[in-house]
Protein 1
Amino acid sequence: MSLSLLAVLFAAPSFAADNLAVVNGKAIPQSRAEAVIAEQKAQGAPDSEQLRAAVKERLIGLEVLAQEAQKKGVEKSAAFQTKLDIARQSLLVNTYLQDYAKAHPVSEADIKAEYDRIKAQLGDKEYKVRHILVEKEEDAKAIIEKLGKGEKFDDLAKQSKDPGSKDKGGDLGWANPGSFVKPFSDAMTKLEKGKYSATPVKSEFGYHVIKLEDVRALKSPTLEEVKPQLKQRLEQQAVEKHVAELRAKAQIK
C-alpha cells in the first residue's frame, strides 16, 4: 500500500454509523476504504463490488495485524519510529508537491508551445540510414576506399564498433535527424539516396561512414494524441524546477 494512504490508515477511527467494520471493538471508518478505492481507481481499476469487497478484506486484515502489533509493543521500537518518520516525511512531501502542481497548472498554450518545439526539432522527414563506426580516421578512409572498389557496405559493417548495428549491416533503421548527434545528422541529411559519405564523419563516438538508403515524410502524431503525455511532462518539469530552486536556497552544512 502506498505512502499516500498512511495518514488515512493511521488516523484515529470514528465510531460513526458509516463504519466499514468493527474489529475487536475498534472501528474502521468508511472514509479509509474510500481513500483506498480512490487510489485504485486512479491507477485504472474500475469501481466495482469486487474491488470494494477486496478493499474491505484488506483493511480488516490490516486492522487485525495492527492490533496484534500494538499488543506486542512494535510501535514503541526505535526501528518502527524511524520508518514512521520517513513515511510521514514522504507523505508530507508528496502531498505538498501535488498541491503545488494543482496551484501551478499547465496551460493549453504551454502544451501547444511544447508540441510545436518538439515537432520543429524532429523536422518533417525521417531517414533510413546505415553506418560503420571506427576509432581512427584512417580506418574510416580505408573503408570508403573499399566501398569505391565495389565492396559491400554490409560486409564492411562487421568491423564497426557499434554493437547494435554491426551484425545488421550497419542498419540504424528509420529515424529523424534529432535522434543523432549533430555531426552525424548534418552529414546524413546532405547525402543523396543510395550514396555514402565521401569523407569520414567525426563525432564524439569516433569516425563514421554513413550510407543513406531512403527518405520519407515524417508522420507526426497530432496534438490531441500526445496532449496527456505532454501535460504530464511539463508538470513534472515544473515540479523538478521548483524542487531545484528550493534546494538552491536551502542552507546545507
Protein 2
Amino acid sequence: MPVAGPLDRFPLWLLLGVTIVVLLLAFEGGYRLGAYRLRRSEQEHGAHVLALVTTTMGLLALVLAFTFGLAATRFEARKQMVIDEANAIETTYLRAGLLPGDRGAKVRELLRDYVESRLAVVRLGNVEEALRRAEELHRELWKEAEAAGRDQPISNVVALFIESLNRTIELHAMRVKVAVRGGIPGVMWAALFTVAILNLAAVGYHAGLVRSRRSPTIATVVMSLSIVLMLTADLDRPQEGALTVSQQAMIDLRRMIGD
C-alpha cells in the first residue's frame, strides 16, 4: 500500500538543486537554439516570440498558483485534523471512565497506546508500521465496545462511549486520507515542472534570437521559481522540511491522559 508520491523519495534540498540546474540548462538550451535560428533565418521576429513567451509565463503562473493553493489548503486541513483527532480521543478517554468494572481502565490503557502510536509515526516516520498498529488497537478497542454493548444494551453511557469511539476511528481514516495519501498527484507535479522548463527555454530562445547577452538576472528568475516550487513541495510533506504540521494537540493529550 504505497503512501509516497514520486517526489517524496528525494529530500527537498536535492530537489531544489536539481530544479535550479535543470531550469538553467533549459534557459541555456533555448538561448543557443535562438542564436542558431538567428544565424539561419532572418524571418523570425523577436516581438512575435516575446508575445508567445509572455503567454507561457502567464500559463506557468496559473499552474503554479493552482498547485501552491492546493498544497496550502491540504496543509491547513492536516493541521485541523490533528486537533480534531486529539479532541475525539480525549472525549473517548473521558467517557471510558464511565464504563463499569475494569473495562474502562483497559480501554484507557489502549487509548494511551494509541496516542503513543500516533506520535511515533511522526517521530520515526514508519508510516506503514504505525498504520498497522493503529488498526490493531482499533480492533481491540472495538471488542471492548462490543462487550460493553452486549452487557448493557440499553445503557446511555455505553452508547455515548461507542459514539465517541466510532468518531475516533472515523477521524483516523480521514487523517490517513488527508495527511498520508492526500498529496499532490504526480501528474500535476510533472505538468508543473514541464511548464516551468518550457517557459525557461522560451525565455532563453527569445534572448538568443534578439542577440541579448546572458543577463545575470536570469539566475534570480531561476532561483525564485525554484524556491516557490520547493515551498510547494514542502507544504505537501506535512512532517518534513521547514513547514511541518504541529503535533502539539496530541502531545498535550498524551500529557493529560498520562497523569
Protein 3
Amino acid sequence: MSSKRGTLTRVKTREKIDGWLFVLPFVISTLVFFAGPLVVAFILSFKEYSFLDQNTIWQAKWVGFDNYLNALKDPVFKKALLNTTLYSLGVVPIQLIIALILALIVDSDIKGKTFFRVAYYIPTVTSTVAVSVMFMFIFKTDGLLNKFLKLFGIPPYNWFGDVRLALPSIMGMAIWSSVGLYMIIFLAGLQDIPHSLYEAAWIDGANKWQQFWYVTLPLLRPTFFFNLVVSLIGTFQVFDQAYVVSGGNGGPLNATMTVVLYLYRTGFRDFKMGYACAIAFILFAIIFALTLVQKKLFGEETQYQ
C-alpha cells in the first residue's frame, strides 16, 4: 500500500515538474520582456533620466511626481491628447458601424460573399506604413483624389498639409485600413446567434428590422463590447500613420501630433526618458479608465440557449 502511495506521489511530482518546464519559457520571456521593463519604466517615470547620461537608471535623479505634473501642464501634450481624443471619437463609431454593416452583408445569402469577405479583410493585413505611403500618394496635391474632385470643379487641397484636414485625412485612412478586422469579429458574433431565435421572431410577426433590433443587436452585445474596447485602445495608441504622414514631427502645427508620437519624440529624440515614461503611464491610466467605463455601461454578457 505504501509502495503504491509512494509511486503515486512520484508521478504527481513528475507531472508538476513537467508542467513547470512547459510553462518556464513563457514565464521567463514574460519576466524579461514584459514585467521587467514595465517595472523599470514605472520607476523611471519618477526620475529625470536620459540615455545620454553617464549615470545608470538607478543613479538617476529622483523627481517624484514632477514628470506627471509637467505633462499635465505641457501645451504640446495637451494638444496631442486632444488630437488623440478627437481621432478616437471620429474613428471608433464610424469604424464599428461600417464593420457591422459589412458583416451583415457578407453574412447574408448574396453571391460571391467569400470574395467580399476577403476583399474587405485584405487592408487589415497590409502594412500600416505601406497604407500610409499609399494614402500620401492619393491625398497629395496632384494625387488621385484631387484629380477626381477636379472632375466636379472642386479645387485641389493639400490634405495632409492643411491644419484643418490633416487629422480627418488620417481618420479616413485608419477606418479604411482596419474596418475589415472588426467586420470579421462581428461576423463571428452573427454566426454564433442561433437561427432558431430568428425563426421564433418571424413566427411572432417580427420583420427584418425588428429582428435586427430586438434579436441581433442584444445578442451582439459581448461582440460589440470587445470590438469597442479593442478599437478604442488602438485609436488611443495610434502612431504609425501620424509618424509617416508628418515625417515624425506631428505637423502641420502639431495637427497630427498624437500621444504615442509625442511619447516617442520625447523619449527617443529629446532623450527625456523619465518624462516619456510618465506620459506612457498617463495614457495607460486613461485607457484603463475608459475600459472600466465601457464595461460598466455594457454590463454582464448576454447569454442565450
